[in-house]
Amino acid sequence: MADFRAIEDWAGHLLAKLDGTARRRLAVDIARKLRTANTQRMRAQTDPDGNAWKPRKAPSGALRSKRAQVRQQAQQRKPMFAKLRMQRNIRARSEGGNAAVVEFVGRAQRIARVHHYGETDLVNPGGPSYDYPARELIGISKDDIDWLREYLLDYLSK
Predict the structure, then answer these.
(1) Would 134 disulfide with which of 16, 20, 116, 118, CB 3.0-4.6 Å?
(2) Tens digit of pLDDT for each residue in 45-82?
């Protein structure tokens, strides 16, 4: 994760001069742009540092039917977290005008937590458990920090 103390020191007193509505609007706009950046990284299957995620576990065991084999092969070709990265599952909001928050909501939050931290969870309800590898889903990269500096300069110069 990134350290925002430098940005807070640099722009904190300027942001404090903004009224509450302007700060809240700025925070929501920043959160939306960070959500977009994170969903693009999820689509590329990389973490904020640019490292590729560990790939899906290869299917094991023989399947009974040809149809099941075809379905399993199709599943292997799909990108991970296609539904999880949809806007309805990732909320971008302002927290009291002082913070920009990007978070998973609902059922997606539990699934994202398991994969983000690499926890053990059931594959199917009532089925076997699996120790998922850690795949950082949401984070802030150095490019995001550079973008944020530029965006704050543009916003505050208006």
Answers:
(1) 118
(2) 999 999 999 988 776 666 677 777 777 777 767 788 98
Write out the DSSP string of the chain. Answer: ----HHHHHHHHHHHHTS-HHHHHHHHHHHHHHHHHHHHHHHHHTB-TTSPBPPPPPPP-S--SSHHHHHHHHHHHHSPTTTTTTSTTTEEEEESTTS-EEEEE-THHHHHHHHHHHT-EEESSTTS-EEEPPP---S---HHHHHHHHHHHHHHHH-
Q: What six digits make up the tokens of 60?
A: 């094991």
Q: How far apart are CA 107 and CA 121, in angstroms?
A: 14
User: What is the C-alpha to C-alpha distance for residues 40 and 45, in angstroms, rounded to an integer?
Assistant: 8
Contacts by 105-114 with C-beta closer than 8 Å and gap 24+?
A: 108/84, 111/84, 112/84, 112/137, 112/138
Distances in Å between the Cα of 71 and the Cα atoms of 80, 82, 130 are 15, 17, 21
